[in-house]
Amino acid sequence: MGALWLLYARAVLRNPWALSPALLLPLLSLAFAGRGEAVVVVSLYASLSLLLPPLVLALSTPLLAAREDWAFWAGMPRLPGGLYLAGVLGVGVGLSLPLWAGVALGAALLGLSGQAAGLLGLAGLGLLWLWVGLAGWVGAGLEPARALGLGLLLWGLLVVAYDPLLLLLAVALRQYPLEGLLLPALLLNPIELIRVELLRALEAPVLVGPTGYLLKEWLGHTGGGLTLGVGLVALGLALLGAAWRFAWRDR
Questions:
Q1: What are the CA-CA distances from residue 55 to residues 144, 187, 209 (Å)?
Q2: What confidence tens digit (pLDDT) does each residue in 26-64 have?
Q3: pLDDT of 17 strictly over 60
Q4: Helices 37-64/114-139 angle, 10° precision
Q5: Which of helix, strand or coil describes residue 192?
Q6: How many CB atoms lie within 10 A of CB 54?
Q7: Using CB atoms within 10 A of its CB, is residue 91 exposed (0-12), middle (13-18) or buried (19+)?
Q8: Are 5 and 136 within 8 A, CB to CB?
Q9: Residue 79: pLDDT over 70
Q10: What value does the CA radius of gyration of the chain take, rounded to a whole number of Å?
């Protein structure tokens, strides 16, 4: 399995588009030059949440959902789900390297402190791996084109439409006790929780959006333990679900 994850890490890095975070992040950083560290970090994370998921999906689903390749690997004397999981992890490792390079270059260009650069790197890495897990899940049971389409639909729901829909629901039903419904909905989106945690960690005096407001109202504040726990659970479920789906896939 060790050789398999390395094979997929190399495969994803052979695609020139996989290196784009190493070039894009420094260019985006220049757009926020002269602003406070909190503004820079949160703005770069917001940019990554919009741009990174489609890139991850476009690069990973052709590799992970290729029927011919996995029909061959599944014939090896190991559990098919475990082999597929090794491939997913390899893709994640391969995509992590350019992201970290881009964060380091962007932080150096702007002269960010070690804390700000570290928070941005960890937030970006968490975002990347969440989408690698989702890409592995959708690619485990679908053809590449359908897997990419489902992944983009999830991106639209979790990133683009999530906050507006949550706010609309809270305002439209404000006369009803919705804590039992809205609080689980907040905790189901670790991508938004990471953004709120960045603002809290940097003590940024800016608006945190509907998610941050509702978490502060109901939980007092959102701490790193909550965000880390939700993120790890979400990633673990995605990876285990991917292995299970592939194990039962018609190959």
A1: 14, 25, 25
A2: 988 888 887 778 788 888 888 898 889 999 999 998 888
A3: yes
A4: 20
A5: helix
A6: 16
A7: buried
A8: no
A9: yes
A10: 19
Burial of 34 (0-12, 13-18, 19+ CB in 10 A): exposed
Q: Where are the alpha helices (DSSP H) in the chain?
A: 2-13, 20-31, 37-64, 67-73, 80-110, 114-139, 144-155, 162-172, 179-187, 190-202, 209-219, 224-247
Cα distance between residue 170 and residue 192, in whole Å:
17
Could you tell me how far CA 142 lies from the centroid of its own chain?
20
The model's pTM is 0.84
Nearest to 220 by CA among 212, 230, 210: 212
Q: How far apart are CA 141 and CA 248, in angstroms?
A: 8
Nearest one of 177, 163, 178 to 211, comparing CA atoms:
163
